[in-house]
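QA checklist item 7 of 12: single-chain prediction sanity check.
[x] sequence parsed
[x] length recorded as 107
[x] structure emitted
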Amino acid sequence: MVVARTVLNYFGPGDAVLDNKVASEDRDHFYRLEEEGLLSSEEEDATVSRGKTWRIHYWFLKKSRIRAASEGGEAAPSEGADAVYRQISDDAWNRSSGASRARPPAR
C-alpha cells in the first residue's frame, strides 16, 4: 500500500514523471516495479546551450498492465516465478533422501 501511494504521489493523474523528481529511496521502488512490468523507463537526449547534451530520464506507468494485474488477469512476473519450485517433488528437497553422501578427503 505504501508503494502504491508513493507512485500515485509522483504520477498523479498523469502517466509519466521525470526521474530527477524521484527521491533515491523511491527510485528503488520504481526499479522493482519496472522489473515487475508495471513501470517502464525511457531516456532522451536534449541539446542545451553551447551544444551541450543532457540526458533526460522518464518513468512511465504501464496502465493496461496495472489494470490487468488488479483485475486478476495477467499475473505480474514475480507471482509465477516460484512455480518452478512448486513443480519439484518433496523428495527432491529432502537432503537425507537415502543417497550416500561423499566424505571429505582425508588429510
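[x] summary fact logged: The first strand starts at residue 16 and ends at 18.
[ ] second reviewer sign-off
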